[in-house]
Amino acid sequence: MKVKLKIFRYDPENDKKPHYDKFVVEAEPTDRILDLLEWIKDYQDGTISYRRSCAHGVCGSDAMRINGVNRLACKVLVKDVGTKVTVQPILGLPIEKDLIVDMEPFFDSYKSVMPYFVGGEENPQKEQLQSPEDRERFDDTTKCILCAACTTSCPSFWANGEYVGPAAMVNAHRFIFDSRDQAAAERLKVLNDQYGVYRCHTIFNCTDACPREIQVTQAIGDLKKAIATSRLD
Amino acid sequence: MALDRRVGFFEGLKYKGGGPMLAWILHRISGLGMIVFISLHVVASFFTQEMGSDWAISINIVYESVIFQLFIVFSVLYHGINGIRIIILDLWPRMLRYQKEMTWLQWLVVIPIYGLTIYIMIQRMITGE
Fold it and tell me: Maximum distance among all alpha carbons in chain B?
């Protein structure tokens, strides 16, 4: 089958404004959108730029808007989107070139919530054990691959880049609800801010966009409740 | 130089967020609709007292028109019921897993009540009650 692709293009060295280029690619229904981009780059236009790494939905490099919604190009099949495909960069981050965006603001928000384990003892002599039930509490949010599909699908983030965003909150959730972690109060303080949890208006774009099917809005809801009640149960 | 991060209003609207995003947009539109209605009402009352009734009548024509009334009834109904859905989701985060079902349930409540209201309004218009 022939697939018509319309791809967002912007070259900061030559273009004043972004534009779209059209390509026609011969594809199988089970080909991924990333396969089509690779074909175009190899055989039709070597200048097209996008991020990719593992190509198996694990590294989170190739988040982009595919037919108007955030997806990983390596996880979307041609049969899922049809023969007319529009590919654009994710929204709300500065566009470096074509489908590549500057991820620094995203990672700055991520870093602001202390996304690392803070233990109680300085030199623990043995493992800090945890019950399966306690581990289950934050299991969903351990799956994040930092692709930014959730954060850049959020209208609150589009409106204000200072909003910490769904991905950072998912990663805060992962440690706040870890029974062994000791820095929940500090993380909740960061999130109990005008650019924190209350910018979430339960629009659910993040949950729909997440390629790992994390219940992002529920994680944010847990954080809102923890802040409101000062309890983690 | 990298392109600015700003997302245009219409570019944002083009994002295909589906039902939940539509609910969020309608919540804003219905909220604005109610503000317009109440503002027109207050302004009309002010004009009636201060400048005679002609100004007020011209404003009354706007918000008493059938189209505006159909819009405002929808706004009040939708905004209220969607607000209840959001409150439930905020108070019980576990319910967020069932947000799609709740959005459908919300429409199941809104559509019959709105349909019944339209029916009564049209019936009264026809009979002139």
Answer: 67
Q: Do A204 and B20 touch (CB under 8 A)?
A: yes
Domain annotation covers residue B3: no
Chain A window 182-201: which residues touch B at a Cβ cutoff of 8 Å? 201
The answer to whether A59 and A145 have CB atoms below 8 angstroms apart is yes
Q: What is the pLDDT of residues B62-109, one digit of tens each?
A: 888 888 899 999 999 999 999 999 999 988 888 888 888 999 999 999
Give dist(CA B129, CA B121) in Å, integer: 10
Cβ separation of A202 and B20 shorter than 8 Å?
A: yes
Which among A204, A207, A221 is the nearest to B93, CB-wise? A221
**The domain that contains A117 carries what CATH number?**
1.10.1060.10
Range of the domain at A40: 2-101
State the nearest Cα–Cα gap between A168 and chain B, in angstroms.
Answer: 18
Is B5 contained in some domain?
no
pLDDT per residue as tens digits for the range A128-156: 899 999 999 999 999 999 999 999 999 99
